[in-house]
Specification:
Blueprint: E1 4-8, H1 13-23, E2 30-34, E3 40-44, E4 52-56, H2 67-83, E5 88-93, H3 112-123, E6 127-131, E7 146-149, H4 152-158, H5 160-163, E8 168-172, H6 178-188, E9 191-199, E10 207-213, E11 220-228, H7 232-243, E12 248-256, H8 262-268, E13 271-277, E14 289-292, H9 295-306
Parallel strand pairs: 1-4, 4-5, 5-6, 6-7, 8-9, 8-11, 11-12, 12-13, 13-14
Antiparallel strand pairs: 2-3, 9-10
Helix pairs in contact: 1-9, 2-3
C-alpha cells in the first residue's frame, strides 16, 4: 500500500520531528554527513518505492549548514528518492531561500528564486510546499502543483490572548505589505494604517520610518510582515508608532530570519512582543520574541496532499497572503 514518508535534512530537524508526532508517524531513516572536501553524503535507510515522500528542509544558515548547503542537501535527497522509485515527491520548504530575488530589480541581475525552484524540479520534485512566500508570483516558477500555505490564522490564534479586548489597528511597515495588512485587519475586524519607509542611502540594512497614514493614538498596534531579517523595518515602524501615541506595539512575522543585529534591535525597540513561527529555528533567545508553532499547519497540509484532499479547504478557500 502507498505510505506517507516524511524525511528531513539537517537544517531544521526539530520542526520535522514535531510534524511527525502530529501526524503520528516515524521520521524516515536517513544518513547525512559531509565528505572531507565538504560534499554532502546522503543515503536512504528504508524502502520508499511506490510511496508518497515529503522532504522537509528550511533554507537556513545554521550551525551545520550554510543556506546554500541546505538547498543543495534538499535537492540531493529529492534525487535519491526519485532514483529509489518514490511514487511522488514533495519538497517541503517552510522558508524558501532567495525568495526576495523574485525579479530583476536592476540591469544584469539574476532571478535567483526561479533558479532555486528549477533546482527542485530538476532534482525530481513533483510538488512544492512553502509558507508565506515573499511574493506569490513565485508559485508560477514551478510547472506543477505548488501549495502556498498561509500562517496568518496560526499566528493570530497564537496571540489571541494579548489582543483580547484591545482596540487594535493593523499596521503595514511599508506600502508593499499593505495588501497583507488589509487581510489581517479583515480577520480582526479592525482598522489599518500604513507607514512610508525610506532606506538609508549611506548605511546598509538601515531603515528610517518617515510618514504614518492612519490613526494609532491610544491603540494597540500590530505591525505585520512576512519575515524579519535584520529587523530594521519593523523596529523603525514600532518606534514611530509609539511617537505617534500608540498604547503598545506588537510585531508579527512568519519567518524569523533574525540576522545580526536583529535580536539587539528588537530588544532595544518599542515592541512589547514580536511573534514569529518556527519555519526557521530560533538561533538566539529573547524575552521579547514569542514563537508560534507552524507544525500543525504543515502536518494538515501534508496529510491533505497524501489523502488527495483539498489544501485550500484548510483556510476556507482564503489562502492568500
Amino acid at each position: 500500500m502507498r505510505e506517507l514518508k516524511l524525511l528531513t535534512g539537517r537544517a531544521h530537524p526539530a520542526l520535522a520531528k514535531e510534524i511527525a508526532e502530529y501526524l503520528d508517524i516515524d521520521l524516515g531513516q536517513v544518513v547525512l554527513s559531509d565528505f572531507a572536501n565538504g560534499e554532502i553524503s546522503f543515503r536512504l535507510h528504508e524502502n520508499v518505492r511506490g510511496n508518497d515522500v515529503f522532504i522537509l528542509q528550511a533554507h537556513f544558515a545554521g550551525k551545520e549548514l550554510t543556506l546554500n548547503d541546505a538547498i543543495m542537501e534538499q535537492a540531493i535527497m529529492i534525487d535519491a528518492a526519485k532514483r529509489s522509485s518514490a511514487a511522488s515527491i514533495t519538497a517541503v520548504c517552510p522558508f524558501l531561500g532567495y525568495a526576495r530575488q523574485d525579479r530583476k530589480a536592476g540591469g544584469r541581475e539574476p532571478i535567483t528564486s526561479r533558479l532555486v525552484i528549477d533546482m527542485m524540479a530538476a532534482a525530481g520534485a513533483d510538488r512544492i510546499m512553502s509558507v508565506d512566500l515573499h511574493s506569490g508570483q513565485i508559485q508560477g516558477f514551478f510547472n506543477g502543483p505548488f501549495d502556498h500555505l498561509i500562517a496568518r490564522p496560526t499566528l493570530l490564534r497564537g496571540m489571541a490572548d494579548v489582543l483580547q479586548g484591545e482596540d487594535v489597528v493593523v499596521v503595514s511597515p511599508d506600502a508593499g505589505r499593505a495588501k497583507s495588512a488589509e487581510r489581517y485587519s479583515s480577520d480582526l475586524s479592525c482598522e489599518m494604517a500604513v507607514i512610508h519607509k525610506h532606506r538609508s542611502t549611506t548605511q546598509n540594512n538601515t531603515v528610517e520610518a518617515k510618514f504614518l497614514i492612519g490613526e494609532v493614538k491610544g491603540k494597540t498596534c500590530l505591525v505585520i510582515d512576512d519575515m524579519v531579517d535584520t529587523a530594521g523595518t519593523l523596529c523603525a515602524a514600532a518606534d514611530l508608532l509609539m511617537k505617534e501615541g500608540a498604547k503598545q506595539v506588537y510585531g508579527i512575522a512568519t519567518h524569523g530570519v533574525l540576522s545580526d543585529p536583529a535580536i539587539q534591535r528588537v530588544n532595544d525597540s518599542a515592541f512589547k512582543k514580536l511573534y514569529v513561527t518556527n519555519t526557521l529555528p530560533l538561533s538566539k533567545k529573547s524575552d521579547k520574541i514569542e514563537v508560534v508553532t507552524i507544525a500543525p499547519l504543515l502536518g494538515d497540509a501534508i496529510r491533505a496532499v497524501y489523502e488527495r484532499s483539498s489544501v485550500s479547504a484548510l483556510f476556507g478557500g482564503q489562502n492568500q497572503m
